[in-house]
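### Sample
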Amino acid sequence: MDISLTLERRDAASAGDALRGRLSSIADDKSMLRAAAELTRDLNPPSAAVYWTDLLLSAGIGYAALALAMTLGSVGWAVVASVVAVLALYRAGSFIHEVTHIRHASLPGFRFGWNVIAGVPLLVPSFMYEGVHNLHHARTRYGTIEDPEYLPLASMKPWTLPLFILTSILAPFALIVRYGVLTPLSLVVPGMHRVLVERYSSLSINPAFRRRLPEGEAARLWWMLEGACSVWAVTLIALVATGIFPLRMVAIALAITSGVYVLNQIRTLVAHLWDNHEGDTMSVTAQYLDTVNVPPPAFLPVLWAPVGLRYHALHHLLPGLPYHSLAEAHRRLSKALGTESPYHTASYPGLPGLVARLVRSTMGKRG
């Protein structure tokens, strides 16, 4: 049985690679899309108990481990605490993805709670993703120059990959400057606020992306969250400058938060195959084939692709499905759709193979 499954996956993967060579010409597989919608209707309601419990436990463990890492005398235990802090805070921070997709009426107070617990402390308020990530899911924007979260990485130069990772190491410093220095300056420097909104207020990877100024309720929420982040960043700067926050503890905290952003950047590298080299518009099925699932039996994706991100391709089929329903949705679709369905071609065994594939692509070697 194991052998047959392996062969089926290998054959499906080969078929998928053939299709991906012409992504822009792939029509939608209506049977797959229909099955995805019909078989998962009962999975749409989010569970407040699951969301709040997961967020509070992740953040609680993360902050406790962070405090231990900064105060423990033993280097060995401090390293262990640091690793736990990175993984737990990364999981808590990853809920920004859910905040962007859920209907707020179905989870009252969760967006506010997430911002208080993780968004503001980590200096990544929800407005940095809301109004941006939805463009990535737009049928006519995905993979194009108008997609804030897409670059044709598979056809770019090999040095772009390490640079892509290295930039995330500096993220904590950049965010402190963004909110602790530039936000206060934007109150007195004409035109600076517009520049901050357009170019430095998005969790995007496309350098050509410029976001619009917020309006109405979104603008009011933006100002509230930006103000809170600015107060927090200025406080951190003052605590360091006055010596209240010792440099050793500062270095540990910065290293841990850098680890969170690096881990997220690595996950971003393998979230897609980045094969839309020409930047053409694509069908939903083509977008699915350009995106990655890393389902069980692999265990490590629980750590590096938390909060449902291991089912990223499935998420592109069903962006409104809550993260805790994705595993069951994948089980149902895997069982209902035959091996000839393109659904099976988006599943991969793990991180090493995906990274290796991307590296080979940047070196001009497909596979």
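The two ends are 26 Å apart (CA to CA). This sample (DesA-family fatty acid desaturase) is used throughout the tutorial notebook.
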